[in-house]
Amino acid sequence: MKKKVLITINSMEIGGIERSLAGMLGAFDYDKYDVDVLLFSKKGEFLPLIDKRGNLLPEIPQCATMLMSVKEIIKKGHLLIALARIYAKLSVEQKYKYSDETQDAIVCAHLQAYWERCVPLMPKLKKEYDAAISFMWPHHFTERNVRAKRKIAWVHTDYTKFAIDNKKDLEIWSRFDGIAAVSAECGRAFLKVYPSLSKRLVTVENIISKELVRSQADEFMPEDMPAEDGYTRLLTVGRFCYAKAFDVAAEICKILVGRGLKIRWYAVGYGSEVQRVEKKIQELGIADSFIILGKKLNPYPYMKNCDIYVQPSRYEGKAVTVREAQILGKPVIITDFTTARGQVKDGFDAVISPMASESVADDIERMINDGELREKLSRNAYNSDYSADRHMKKIYEMIEGQG
Question: How many domains does one find in the chain?
Answer without folding.
Answer: 2
